[in-house]
Design brief:
Largest sheet: 9 strands, antiparallel
Oligomer: single chain
Strand content: 25-35%
Number of strands: 20
Shape: elongated
Distance between the termini: 117 Å
Helix content: 25-40%
Strand order of the largest sheet: 4-3-2-1-6-7-8-9-5
Length: about 350
């Protein structure tokens, strides 16, 4: 082949290669795309939302906002939602920006991890007013590929978000809305003896009690510890009010009564079914056999050491009553039974003596 012909052939092949590349490559991002540089979620849209849905890996949680602005978790017995968590999500979406267009090529879109991970805002009728579909993280850098609704274009954002689809995780676990400084008196019941009442005239005044032994004074630190534990009560799980576990705990409740400086009264009962020890079935049979051998003078009597099965203590449940008839906790107690951490219960004083210390100067 002549050299000139060869050169022409190579040039033609090169031109075809360039044409093929230009035809198949992703179209360059439009420098005027209106979304680039803007927040993923603007404040006006967030303010219009009456519902929120978070979906990921085949699971979904739904929340709704009432006319009074409070959020509830529809996926978890309509319990009050953790407003700080809802606010944090909205803040994350508002602070994250659309940094660049990635692609509108359907083939490339299919490789960016867009499946069922999404965040949706809804109006009062349940209709979606904003939806962000979240894809995978890029191979380099941090952030996520994103799409808006069903739009055929993908973007990249430095968004950091946790798509929590555990309904219980969205519920407000805080059961009381009072603080230790609000409390004027506390009544504490014990397994033996009468309850002990400690009171104070104002927030900074010393605690006093009619039950204070001679030469003693109320331990401010111990009372402070009790109030901190009770006013900060959070549930770890819930169950039906008529279920076996809370019913088993009911006979073993200890009751505490808090009275605020403005006259509000809170009754808090908490407890659990205690640990049990039961004779093992095999030992029970052996005991019966031994009893039979006692009536048979010819049969030898072998002493036996009984063994027991230990049944662990049950979970700790709490029941709360507020003298304010409109307090939300009263309604909550009718709908669910609330379980709390064991250490809250075990950390409370077990004997009246624990509430007192040597008087200063004694």
């Amino acid at each position: 082949m002549k050299l000139r012909t060869l050169i022409l052939a190579v040039a033609v092949l090169a031109a075809l290669s360039v044409a093929a590349y230009l035809g198949n490559r992703t179209k360059p991002a439009s420098p005027t795309d209106p979304r680039v540089g803007t927040a993923l979620l603007d404040s006006d849209t967030a303010a219009k939302a009456a519902g929120l849905a978070v979906a990921d890996q085949g699971k979904e949680v739904d929340l709704s906002r009432g006319a009074d602005g409070t959020w509830t978790v529809g996926s978890y017995y309509n319990l009050p939602a953790d407003f700080s968590k809802v606010s944090q999500l909205a803040r994350d979406l508002n602070e994250a920006k659309v940094e660049r267009v990635v692609t509108d090529n359907p083939e490339r879109l299919a490789h960016l991890g867009f499946a069922d991970s999404s965040i949706t805002l809804k109006d009062s009728s349940g209709k979606a007013i904003w939806r962000l579909v979240v894809g995978k993280e890029p191979d380099s850098g941090t952030g996520r590929f994103i799409r808006f609704g069903d739009e055929p274009r993908a973007y990249f954002s430095g968004l950091h978000v946790w798509l929590d689809t555990d309904p219980k995780g969205w519920a407000n676990a805080q059961l009381l809305g009072v603080k230790p400084d609000d409390i004027a008196s506390v009544e504490m019941a014990f397994d033996a003896g009468p309850p002990v009442v400690a009171s104070r005239a104002k927030k900074d005044a010393p605690w006093t009690s009619a039950a204070t032994p001679a030469g003693k004074q109320v331990s401010a630190d111990r009372v402070s510890s009790v109030l901190s534990s009770l006013t900060a009560l959070k549930f770890t799980d819930t169950t039906g009010v008529g279920d076996a576990a809370p019913a088993a705990a009911a006979p073993f409740m200890r009751t505490f009564r808090l009275t605020t400086f403005d006259g509000r009264s809170l009754t808090i009962s908490l407890g659990r079914k205690p640990e049990e020890k039961k004779l093992k079935a095999t030992d029970a049979k052996a005991a019966l056999a031994a009893m039979g051998s006692l009536t048979d003078t010819k049969a030898p009597v072998k002493p036996t050491v009984p063994e027991f099965d230990t049944i662990p203590a049950g979970p700790v449940f709490v029941s709360i009553s507020d003298s304010d008839a409109n307090a939300s906790v009263n309604d909550l107690m009718k709908r669910r039974a609330f379980e709390i951490d064991d250490y809250v219960f075990t950390g409370l004083p077990q004997k009246p003596d624990e509430l007192f210390e040597a008087a200063k100067g004694k």
